[in-house]
Amino acid sequence: MELELASIDESVILKTLRHLIYGEVINAVAFVTLGFLSLFFFFDFVEEVQSVGRHAATGYQTVHALTYVALMIPSHLYELMPIAVLIGTIFVMARLAQSSEYTILRTSGLDPWRALKTLLTLGFGFFLLTFAIGDYLSPMADRSAQLLKARYTGFITLGQTGAWLKEKQPERQFAVNVGELAHDGSLRNVRIFEFDNQGLLKSMSHAEFATIQEDNTWLLTSANHTEFPSRDDTSLKIQRGVEATMRWANQISAEMVSAALLKPERMSTVDLFQYIRHLQDNAQSAQRYEIEFWKKVFYPLSCLVMVVLALPFAHFHFRSGSIATYVFGGVMAGISFFLLNNVFGYIGNLQNWQPWLTAALPGLIYSVLSLTAFAWLVLRR
Questions:
Q1: Is residue 286 part of a domain?
Q2: pLDDT score for 149
Q3: pLDDT bracket for residue 3 (50, 70, 90)
């Protein structure tokens, strides 16, 4: 009976300790996230006010700028989550150590391994939240923001030549150029070049306006179509004509066009994977998109790395006022991780590294640092 009571008491104590740590860390992470998002919202709005002045004649007003900046919040939240988790967890661990509360928690049964397990469980919750934001909320909000701005400021374009896509079909292949993406999802300034298996140009179509149907068929309006004779048949001439409506059956979906026009890091994992398959099937380079795909996979896992990196701060002996120094160190560590993640993406793309290794390297480096710090400061000391 006494053993049963002792085990019950221990489980209740550990449950209480977990709830205490969970509540403190969640509140701290939420406060840090709110602070960062407020700064980003302010900077984005100040920059967007200039667009209000430039496009006032087209009806772009302050309320539209506020809506646009608000729709950009999920993208910033996705980028900031690992940093906010690191800073918030460091602050809680350092404050518990400074007030000697963590010493009391250790004497109550919270040994280093249980503390690590508790933080990893909490980090897994942040991982799921980050993945949901980056894979569902952020792509939808970013697309809505871009289309909203395009409604008043013009079309979404990609440089002076637009976006190029390829489509391979039996006995022929196509090169497609899309100049602009309108706010309603329609396409502007569309050019379709058809080639045979020998690489010879068979036909060329140009339309100022096109829409993508539900079955991925493109409906071109007022299309200028040109047919070129084959090399063997010299008796035929070039044929030109204008079609009121022209249907083009293909496998290029609206998401693939958006992928070519919008930033790949704003896409969902599924859309990125489908677009990579499309590029590979058409013998196009997919290095950049493969890196972004693997970054989508590994980036939420960095929340687990950050909570492990924050645990050793609970075992420091803080003097009055020294906690701010360690929190500042946490801020610098979070910023360095964000920079390293971007730098490795560019280097991997230039040096043609393995996409999964390029995306995983920043997390692996910080995992080694966090586990080394845990082994040295927590286990050995």
A1: no
A2: 77
A3: very low
Q: Which residues, listed in sequence order, are joined to residue 173 by a DSSP beta bridge?
A: 168, 195
**Angle CA 286–287–293, to nearest 5:** 85
Residue 230 tokens, joined: 């084959």
Q: Please tell me whether residues 224 and 145 are part of one structural domain.
A: no
Note whether residue 276 is domain-resident.
Answer: no
Return the pLDDT at 341: 84
Residues 168 and 229 placed together within one structural domain of the fold = yes
Q: Give dist(CA 52, CA 94) in Å, integer.
A: 45
Helices marked H in the chain: 2-54, 62-71, 73-98, 101-107, 112-132, 138-153, 254-261, 269-281, 287-298, 302-310, 323-351, 355-373
- Residue pair 212/235 in contact (Cβ under 8 Å)? The answer is no
Quick: pLDDT tens for 93-133. Answer: 888 887 777 777 777 777 778 888 888 899 999 999 999 99
CB 82 within 8 A of CB 130: yes
Contact 313, 326 (CB under 8 A): yes
* 201 Rama sector, left if φ>0, alpha if ψ -120 to 50, beta otherwise: beta
Which neighbouring-strand residues pair with 224?
Answer: 206, 242
